[in-house]
Design a protein that fits this description.
single chain; alpha/beta; Rossmann fold; 2 domains; seven-stranded parallel β-sheet; 8 helices; 7 strands; 14% strand
Length: 265
C-alpha cells in the first residue's frame, strides 16, 4: 500500500498514538501526519505551555491532547500515559521522539553530561515503551518507532555520550523487535541526519561560539555531512515514521531506517 506525500487518509482511524517530544520539530511533524491519517494523538513533553499551544494549533486536523512528563522520570511517564488513556483509550502506536544532544571532547565529558544523554535518549525510550506495551499486547497489534540518529550507526567526534545513547536505542530496537515479532507488534528506528530543528540551531550556536564562524557558515558545515548538501526537513523524517505505522509495513521490524540523503548506507 502506498500513500502519496501530502495525501491524507483514515487508515489510522481508531488508533491512539503517543508521540514524545511531540510539540516541536520532528515530533510536531509526526503528530501532524498521524492526525491527518485519522489517529488520535497524545503529545508528551516537559514544556506544558508549548504542548498546550500545539494542541490548539492542531485542533482542525483531528483529536490531539497533551500530557506533561519528563521521559527520564518513570513515575511521571506512568502518570502521563494513564492520563492519555483516560481520554483517548488504549495506546496502539508509540513514537519515542524526545531526545537531547550535548557535545564535548571525551575527556571533558563529565558524568552529568553522560547521564543526561542516557537518561533522556535511552532511559526515556525504555520507560515509555514499557508503559505502552501492555496496551499493544492486549490489542495484538502495535507500532513502536524510535527516533534515533545517524549517530546511532557510526561514530562522531565530540559527541561520544550522544553516540553511545543512540547506539543503545538501536540495540534496544533490534532486541525488542525479535522478542515481539510473533505478537503483531513491530519495533523500528528512524535515523535522521542533521535536521532543521531547534537541536540544529543549538549546534549552529555552539559552532559560532567556539569558532567565530558566521551562522551561515556553521549551517553549511552541518549540511556538508549530507551528500545532498542540505539539512533534512522534519516532514521527511515524519514521512518515514508514518510509513512504519500504516498498513502494509507489517513485515518491517527491527530496522534502522536512515533519513540523511545518503550520509550512511
Amino acid at each position: 500500500m502506498s500513500i502519496a506525500v501530502g495525501q491524507s487518509s483514515q487508515l489510522l482511524k481508531q488508533k491512539h498514538a503517543v508521540v514524545t517530544g511531540g510539540a516541536r520539530g520532528i515530533g510536531l511533524a509526526i503528530t501532524r501526519l498521524l492526525l491527518e491519517h485519522g489517529a488520535r494523538v497524545t503529545m508528551v513533553g516537559r514544556n506544558t505551555e508549548s504542548l498546550q499551544q500545539s494542541v490548539q494549533n492542531l485542533q482542525a486536523l483531528g483529536a490531539a491532547q497533551s500530557a506533561s512528563a519528563d521521559v527520564s522520570d518513570p513515575a511521571a511517564v506512568g502518570h502521563a500515559f494513564n492520563d492519555a488513556r483516560a481520554r483517548f483509550g488504549p495506546i496502539h502506536i508509540l513514537v519515542n521522539n524526545a531526545g537531547q544532544a550535548g557535545s564535548a571532547s571525551f575527556l571533558k565529558t563529565d558524568s552529568k553530561l553522560w547521564r543526561r544523554m542516557l537518561a533522556v535518549n535511552l532511559d526515556g525510550t525504555f520507560y515509555c515503551t514499557q508503559a505502552a506495551l501492555p496496551d499493544l499486547f492486549a490489542a495484538g497489534w502495535g507500532r513502536v518507532v524510535n527516533v534515533a540518529s545517524v549517530a546511532g550507526l557510526r561514530g562522531a567526534a565530540y559527541i561520544s555520550a550522544y553516540c553511545a545513547s543512540k547506539h543503545a536505542v538501536i540495540g534496544l530496537t533490534r532486541a525488542l523487535a525479535v522478542e515481539l515479532a510473533a505478537k503483531g507488534i513491530t519495533v523500528n528506528a528512524v535515523c535522521p541526519g542533521y535536521t532543521e530543528t531547534d537541536m540544529v540551531e543549538q549546534a549552529v550556536a555552539n559552532i559560532v561560539a567556539k569558532t567565530g564562524r558566521t551562522p551561515q557558515d556553521a549551517r553549511l558545515e552541518l549540511a556538508a555531512h549530507n551528500p545532498q548538501q542540505r539539512l533534512v526537513q522534519p516532514e521527511e523524517v515524519a514521512n518515514a515514521v508514518l510509513w512504519l505505522c500504516l498498513p502494509g509495513s507489517e513485515a518491517i521490524t527491527g530496522q534502522a531506517i536512515v533519513v540523511a540523503g545518503g550520509e550512511v548506507s
